[in-house]
Specification:
Helicase, Ruva Protein, domain 3, single chain, seven-stranded mixed sheet, elongated, 36% helix, 9 helices, Rossmann fold, alpha/beta, 2 domains
Length: 236
């Protein structure tokens, strides 16, 4: 993890018994904060890493307001709980102007989905929404045999770096709705999947012959702008 000049704090999610935490403390010192929900793990961390106590937060990451708990730009790192990794990324998205970088280990299939390009069968909602705001790098696969006991799934390390986009050139709330609706019916063409959102003047356009998985972020932005424009005309 390479911190930018204005990126002064590092947040570890789910430290557990501190296997990673010790290395992070050695590297980042008092820049390091930890969020851990489990009370027994908190007590363990207090005992074994006393210097961390002022920056040790017992909380559910999905429920915290990052900008209030740890003001300023953040880099997030951790071995994310596999059952809530997608929820963690959605929470990161809601704090995207604060979270400049994420390096984490997650289930391999989720990592592949996030990093997938348009046209891939694994490309989906999380791919588009994260790629709108972050540059994604699939680091490497972690074999299940390196764990004890070995899990039934492979893992992967992935890196997200905040891009230069400050805002999308469209209604961002509507953009999210369009992406989610399109992929919820990914086997249909966009003309059929988004039919109830499309004005008669645009429903015949060639782009709506495509399926959601074939379109990149910019195409979804353009579709959102078209839908928004015709909604506004209808109001007027």
């Amino acid at each position: 993890m390479q911190l930018q000049a204005d990126q002064t704090k590092v947040l570890e999610i789910g430290a557990g018994t501190g296997v990673l935490t010790g290395f992070l403390l050695d590297r980042f010192g008092n820049q390091l904060h930890v969020v851990e929900v489990d009370e027994e793990s908190i007590e363990y961390l207090k005992l074994h890493f006393p210097s961390l106590v002022p920056r040790l937060h017992q909380a559910d990451f999905l429920k915290i307001k990052l900008d209030e708990m740890i003001p300023g730009h953040l880099a997030i790192i951790g071995n994310f709980p596999y059952n809530i990794s997608s929820q963690i990324f959605f929470h990161v998205l809601s704090h995207r102007n604060q979270v400049r970088e994420v390096v984490c280990m997650i289930q391999k299939e989720v990592a592949e989905r996030i990093a997938a390009p348009p046209g891939s069968k694994t490309y989906g909602i999380l791919s588009v929404l994260l790629q709108a705001w972050y540059d994604i790098e699939y680091g490497f696969t972690v074999n299940e045999q390196v764990f004890f006991p070995p899990p039934k799934v492979k893992s992967a390390v992935i890196r997200l770096q905040r891009n230069q986009i400050l805002s999308l050139d469209c209604d961002e709330k509507l953009f999210h709705q369009v992406v989610k609706k399109a992929f919820n019916q990914r086997r249909k063409t966009l003309r059929n999947g988004l039919r109830d959102m499309l004005h008669p003047q645009i429903i015949g356009l060639e782009i709506f012959n495509e399926r959601a998985e074939q379109l990149g972020v910019n195409s979804f932005v353009e579709i959102t702008k078209m839908i928004s424009l015709h909604r506004q005309k209808a109001i007027e």
